[in-house]
Amino acid sequence: MSVKKNVAALGSVVVGIFILLLAVGSFYTVDEGERGVVVRYGSVVSVSEPGLHFKIPLVDAVRKISTQEQVEMYQRMEAYSNDQQPALMNISVRYQIDNSRVDEVYRNFGTRQALIDRQVTRIVLEEAKTVLGQFNAATSIRERGRLNAEMATAVQQSVTGPVIILGVQVEDVSFSAAYEESVEQRMLAEVAVERERQNLERERVEADIVRTRAAGEADRVRAQAQAEADGIRLRGSAEAEAIRDRAAALADNPLLVELVKAEKWDGKLPTTMLPNSTVPFIEANKPQ
């Protein structure tokens, strides 16, 4: 009797635990940044948004797929530049699963990583070779920004399916050590040439300044000489005019000469005279 009771009690415990497990297994949660694909007997029946949800125990299964932003790294991909220089490229791709197409991810690919391997990785490998093949080795180093932009455009336009490419970044492009050294030397030579060109331009500007200053100084000296010549000419003209006026006055009044003599004479006769010389005398009694 006691054995039957023990068996019954054990059975009740097992049934209770089973019911409890069923009850607990009937609920599930989906976190922010993911979606839950509800699968029933192998078929997708719904996609659950973030929150608490109910499912049929032992019948429904939930496959959670992240829709958050992810980064996929591609290391040491081999490619050739337009001038046939072998290169190794490191590229990072930022992406996320389209929230509205999560059921396609499970139905067509099964997992997020399978989607990336089939829809993104293949495209990145192909476009890396194609885009780098449009650049010379030196250009790919010097114009990294343009290389990044063209790589991002090529990948975004080529990738299809329920994945959104948010960005593509060429992290590094490395060539052989010998080639990189030759590129560095060539770039240094270009810098030196540019420096010499700038020096020549500076010297040309300085020469122009010197010529401008010399021309200005010559103009100043020429103007000063012209002014002095004009002054001399004006003074000469004035003096000549004064002489002409005086000559005209003398011609009109001959006694003016005698008046000037009288005004200039101090009233003394010479103390020494030469033989047979005449005594200076003012013609005071000369008729007027």
Structure commentary:
With 288 residues, the chain is an alpha+beta fold. Among the domains are: 14-64, no CATH class; 70-175, Tetrahydropterin Synthase, Chain A (2-Layer Sandwich), CATH 3.30.479.30. The chain is 55% helix and 22% strand. It is built from 7 helices and 8 strands. The protein has helices at residues 2-24, 102-109, 112-132, 137-142, 144-158, 177-252, 255-264; strands at residues 27-30, 34-40, 43-48, 51-54, 60-66, 70-80, 86-97, 163-174. A 3-stranded antiparallel β-sheet has the order 3-2-5, with helices on one face. Strands 6-7-8 form a 3-stranded antiparallel β-sheet, covered by helices on one side. It is rod-shaped and about 195 Å long.
What's the topology here?
Elements: H1 2-24, E1 27-30, E2 34-40, E3 43-48, E4 51-54, E5 60-66, E6 70-80, E7 86-97, H2 102-109, H3 112-132, H4 137-142, H5 144-158, E8 163-174, H6 177-252, H7 255-264
Antiparallel strand pairs: 1-4, 2-3, 2-5, 6-7, 7-8
Helix pairs in contact: 2-3, 3-5
Terminal Cα separation, in Å? Answer: 194 Å
Output the strand order for the largest sheet: 3-2-5
Report the C-alpha radius of gyration, rounded: 56 Å
Largest sheet: 3 strands, antiparallel
CATH class division of the domain at 70-175: Alpha Beta
pLDDT < 50 runs, ≥5 residues? none
CATH topology of the domain at 70-175: Tetrahydropterin Synthase, Chain A
What is the molecular shape?
rod-shaped
**In DSSP terms, counting alpha (H) and pi (I) runs of 4 or more, how many helices?**
7
Strand content: 15-25%
What portion of residues is helical?
55-70%
The mean pLDDT is 82
Q: Count of DSSP E strands?
A: 8
CATH superfamily of the domain at 70-175, called what?
Band 7 domain
CATH architecture of the domain at 70-175: 2-Layer Sandwich
Provide the structure class. alpha+beta
Give the H and E element order: HEEEEEEEHHHHEHH
